[in-house]
Specification:
Elements: H1 2-18, E1 24-31, E2 51-52, E3 57-64, E4 69-75, H2 82-94, E5 101-106, H3 130-149, E6 152-162, E7 170-172, E8 182-190, E9 195-202, E10 215-216, H4 220-232, E11 235-240, E12 247-249, H5 256-274, E13 278-279, E14 285-295, H6 299-307, E15 316-317, E16 328-339, E17 342-346, E18 350-351, H7 353-360, E19 368-371, E20 380-381, H8 393-397, H9 404-416
Parallel strand pairs: 2-10, 4-5, 9-11, 17-19, 18-20
Antiparallel strand pairs: 1-3, 1-6, 3-4, 6-8, 6-13, 7-12, 8-9, 14-16, 15-16, 16-17
Amino acid sequence: MIFPNILLMLLVSIISDSMPTKFQAGAAKRIITPKGSVYLAGWSNNRKSEGIHDELFARCILIDDGQIQIGFLCLDLLGVTRLQNLEIQHLCRKKGALPDHLIIMATHQHSGPDTIGLWGPDERTTGVDSEYIDWVCQQAAECIAEAKDKIEPAKISLAMTTIDEADRISINHRDPDLIDRDLGLIKIDRLNDTNIAMLINFAMHPEVMKSDSRLITADFPSVIYRECDNKLGGITLFVNGALGGMISPDRTEGNFQEVERIGSFMTEKILEAAKSVVLQENIKLSHRSTKINIPLENLQFLSAIEKGLLPKQMAIRHPKMPPNESRLIIPTVVRFIEIGDAQIATYPGEVLPKLGYQVKNRMNTKYRFIFGLADDELGYILDDQDFGRYPYEYESSMSISRTAGSLTTNAIIRLLGM
């Protein structure tokens, strides 16, 4: 009777080895470079582009553990609003390509088209080209649909390294000692070890190029894309972290030589870390999110809505507000995602490192990620106690509410504890 048992064990082993892994992934990219001259976002009004230095992209990764499917889409733009986000989801749904959870983000580069509305020819005129926005949403949806079509058995690995102050890559102009120097990698490979995609997470404004530049560029992420895509063969995403208040490139000049220096150094660190990634066994995905309402208290933003610079649908009247009150709120969402040992928290804007650390310090893993500018671009998200105080006067003027920090961070912390 021993021999049939041995044969049965061998048969089960052979079947198990031949069965495809439950974990699958796909990736794609689409060019979203505007075809004509556009108003450039991020510095000042009336900056019109005069040429293209490098292409802008929508890049996405879809991952699936057999239970849930999560998509990460990042665009080389200053920001993607909630309304634009909803349009991309709508187009994906029409294509039958909407994953269970889709996180849409922007790199926050400052040499691309105005997608928000605040950087037109003057302070009274929007800089948004609605036809361009419609086209970008179509390109983004096609990117996700292609990634879904390409989904295949895969494996995922993680790495975490740091970029030190001495490397002269990033600097906090407000508080030099308060800066997140973690550089995180999520590497996705086929079962034959060829690369599908890699997600890079680091906190820094892509603004090596200064306000006098008139060329469209993804800034330093363009170098990371070029080098990592060429050397690994997959599709690389750059996702920003706790970049607010004010994490900027430690540049000597605002030129493309500095773009190459910073991007090349980061690429070296990325490729070095990619050699020592830790494979995640029996990968499981987890996603939790919560909707929150942030009061719109910023008079400049209210004025921009009244002028038509920002869409009226950006803010809504709270359904429980008494009829005689006209207080507006901005609905948004925060998320907590687990990919094996990786833990990810998302913020709908430019979160400052103090809040990023509050969340990271509550994570119980080595692989801690903050994804900024996710699901929306609501400006700077500060600690409530820092709002309006030196040296954060500018950040406060570009924040929707003095309580945006506590509302988002407390909601994320509750998600961590669930």
